[in-house]
Queue: 3 jobs
Job 1
Amino acid sequence: MVDNPASQALAKAPRTFFMTVRDIAFWLRSARADATLGRLQSERGLEQAFDELYATSPDPFGAALPQYRYQRQKYQRMLAMLPGRRYGDVLDIGCGLGVLTRQLAPFGEKILGLDISNTAVTEARERSAGFTNLEFAQDDVMAFDPGRRQFDLVVLADTLYYLAPLSDDRLKTIAGKMHDLLAPGGILLLVNHFFFTVDPASRMTREIHNAFRWSSGLNQVAEHKYAFFLASLLERAPWQPVAAPVVGRTANG
Ligand SMILES: C[S@@+](CC[C@H](N)C(=O)[O-])C[C@H]1O[C@@H](n2cnc3c(N)ncnc32)[C@H](O)[C@@H]1O
């Protein structure tokens, strides 16, 4: 458990950053992975493209590589943002190799990592042997149907770009899907990279976060800018019993 409930003021994030040589190397690596993915996707579709990417490059987004601070700090800061409570059911969408999923293990009863790539899911399972409350499933998030299961915490980090084209309608549909996956009172932690400049990726990130913030049924609890990502914490309105209609008394009782 962490000790900063959403209701408390969160620490102010610094507003300016400098990039180290390693940061630049990390973003070049990610750009290469995305370029390979784009080429594969046009030939074989998204699922096959991610499968092939993970098969040829074991950690294409540098999630577990200690030399890159972005991923390591992103996970630490995301966990520190979570309201201090114990979560029943947790869903990590676009879990990749399960690096963050494993770090979520102490926060919940049951954690489900979901990814479109079967190769990534198989690897995540192998890397998570010994974690008794983790499970992994392969599916496209937009097709994912958990039945009556709803989640007290849903994490959606650096995954939405792959659901492009992200038109206003599409963003509304995705936000609606997140709402339906959440239990009443449940928390969505949304993270996307952000560079504080007018580059297209940062503009898209701002649009994504605004669409979620203004979507019906999700209330923004906090937003932070970090090096180099934007993080929003959103809450699904708690369930409220429908008040029974008040039957008025007549003059005769
Ligand atoms: C850049 S990685 C992010 C991994 C992790 N969430 C993180 O923050 O380190 C994006 C992941 O999203 C997965 N993904 C992409 N589109 C998806 C979709 N439609 N449904 C489920 N997973 C998807 C990819 O396979 C990939 O593992």
Job 2
Amino acid sequence: MGFSKNKLEEYRRRGFGEVPNKYVCQDCVNNTEWKEQIRQMATNQSRQKCSYGDNRLATIPLDKFISHCIEFINANYDRVWEDWGIKPDEETNKYPCTTWDTWDLVHDIIANKAGIGHEELLKDIAKAIMSEQDTIWCEHDVFSK
Ligand SMILES: [Zn+2]
């Protein structure tokens, strides 16, 4: 997975939200792979301070980081209704598979995968992705378990 500008534009066209004018550094995540990707993308040219910490590391714009999160979601999760046509049970209102709303997906899955402990960063990611409105997510292999 890389940080692709075209991908980001594609996501925007599909309705992902405006991203706040903020910046992320490698210290914002604990996942080694993601850290390294931020480190490689970050240039000292911009010299924008990290929006979520006090250190002086090079940063990348938050929207690039969010596009990376969206790529991760798209690679591992589907929209339970739009992709699978699965509805909640009419009586119990429960889905027949494990599901997440966007807020939970960001706060459970993305937070764990990337190793993000900063609540404001998680909120900003969730807000950007939540312009997908009421999307409920499930795993790709929803029926194979
Ligand atoms: Zn940071």
Job 3
Amino acid sequence: MLDLDHPDTPPTFAISREDGAILSIAKRMTLVSSEAKIELLAQAALHFAKMRSITIDHWGKSKPMLNAIDLLESDLQRLAGLESKNDYVTDWRGKHCTVCSSAITNLESYEDMLYCPMCLKVIDQGRDAVDQAFGLWCI
Ligand SMILES: [Zn+2]
């Protein structure tokens, strides 16, 4: 369980917020064209920069943490680099991903749950690495 009085708690929450923003950008990436993904990658760069500065301010140049951030960023770049003609942000019903042919899914009762599940797997390793390095599964 996370100890709310522990000095690591505020930066861990801050990292978790950036991680959430990046996940949300990654989901959006699975729905859009190659060109649009490059714009999203630029937005994500701000969140990665924030993650690195939080890490260095609080934990110093922790190798495992910074390596995990690097891995997530390179996974996201890989996702952005997949050639896509997707245009499914609003018109997704019955559509299939032009990258991997999977059905676009949406859990409509939840927010931010529209994405291509296969394409999102491209960033699984990076997400796991960040979760582990920062103990995000606790929160
Ligand atoms: Zn896909």
